[in-house]
Amino acid sequence: MGQLPETRVLEAFNGSSSPPGIQLLQLLIAIQAASLASLGGGPDFDPKYYVDLPLKYPVDTTAEAFSSLPRTLPSGTISSDTLQRFLEENFGIPGSDLVACRPQDYTPEPVDFLPGVCNPEARRWALKIHSLWLLLARQVADCVKEEPNQHTLLPLQHPVIVPGERFREVYYWDSYWIIRGLLVSKMLETAKGMVQNLLALAGKHGFVANGARTYYQNRSQPPLLSMMVCAIHLEAANLTLVEQALPILRKEYNFWTTEPHEVVIQDHQKNKHRLSRYYAQWNTPRPESCIIDEAIAKGLSKAHQAELYHDIATAAESGWDFSSRWMEDHQNLFSLRTSAIIPVDLNAFLLQMELDIAFLARATGDDTTERYFTMAANARRLAIQTILWNEDESQWFDYWLPVNNSKLQSVNSQRVILQEIMLFVCAGDAKIERVLEAFNNSGLMHPGGIATSLRETGQQWDFPNAWAPLQHMIIEGLATLNSEKANKMAIDISRRWLKSNYVAFEETGHMVEKYDARYCGKVGGGGEYNTQTGFGWTNGVALTLLHKYGWADDQPLAPTYNLIPWFTTSKFYMCKVCSKSAFD
């Protein structure tokens, strides 16, 4: 019989001269594996729980106590009672090193809150969403700074808003939509504090980690920090923050635009273009999901396992963990090739970063930096149009790199998979109508919003799930176009999304991280863990859309009739009663 994962990890720990932070992770991963063996798996077993445990005593003392626990032979398992007693004696509850707090700028009903929301029921619901900031507000406890080697949590100076439930710490790209919602709630100081926390992390490490945990420092997430800084600055001009942020943003930009993230691609005319990809600095199982990753890679060679673990972590860096978008066979996680893909959305984010840095530099009078990043934005826009635009489909698609070690890649192939990735920022007037028509015919539009893809794989970033940040990106993209048709589409998607959020809230009492696009008010599912409530970015997007579009007094918030799919891949959905198209 092979060794249990906890045995392998403990052997590495006991003979290790690793830094204390690494030793802590090794111990917690061993406890994660032991807990699985003792308690069994199932939908309620969450491996992240164990790497979030705060230690009461030093790592070596706790490791010695763990090694001394009696084990059943020949399996080597620890009885559930013994393990539970050990956890209670040696650890705090996950999240206990984050203290609930009341943001100083929170008021139950802010002045001039959502003036365009006139419907009483919509206003009541919006105020309930606003009140959820109190449930999600946290301050990192002093003990994290005083005893950093007893926590996987990273110390942060300012209070934060967390996503919710198992996501009990700060996450990078979630924070952008949380901040947008906080600004609607007139909580500028809380929003600014969250940005300053992220700037501190980026200043120290050169990038913002996936989340504020030591085990997330092997990867980042979609780079939205510049957009957060701009959001704060546009809300209330703050040159002090801008001047603090600019050198840090340039450092983060360098992280994304140098190897291994940047790839140079040569087009058919032998012109060279620079685009970026996700690329985690990791090739072993993710600590927060170690047992899951090991199960996916079971039976593969050591070399193939290392490649797969790298692409799993890279998919987590993308924020889309997991999706058929990254799978070579469209279905199975062992076929992930995330690091071999040039994603449309990442390069759209970097284009926005370049425009943002140019804008912020102009605000400070730094003409040299403004010119440099304006030129960089123009070059990336050309690269996106040359390499990622598909003329036949009138859409932008991810680009798959050939598998070789050359630093200079030639044009190979686009991966034509319908996704919720529409690069409206690059759509010139000549392309607008074509892009809108392609989007309208994509099959992604549903009663509950925009589905993430057309493939139903059981992964959470696939059909039929719909996610708040993707709805918002598409709505904002459509709204920026000089097109009445695009603006109507943006309003329509916003209405569908808000109604679905509202119906689900009334039925469950919760805002959730994802929804089922096929139906108004149905909660989404799939993926590695149960659907989570809270929920930071969903709350932020709902408030942002209500602020942008309002809600008329005579406009019902709940659907006036039930919508059911007429054809599963059609863009049309019909009313049961009158057969009227939902798009009419």
Automatic annotation (TrEMBL):
Signal sequence bounds = none
The top EC class is: hydrolase
Q: Which UniProt keywords apply?
A: Glycosidase, Hydrolase
Q: Which reaction does it catalyse?
A: alpha,alpha-trehalose + H2O = alpha-D-glucose + beta-D-glucose
EC nos: 3.2.1.28
PROSITE patterns per record? TREHALASE_2
Hydrolase keyword on record: yes
Give the matching PANTHER family.
TREHALASE
Q: Its family? A: Belongs to the glycosyl hydrolase 37 family.
Full protein name: Trehalase
What species is this protein from?
Sphagnum jensenii
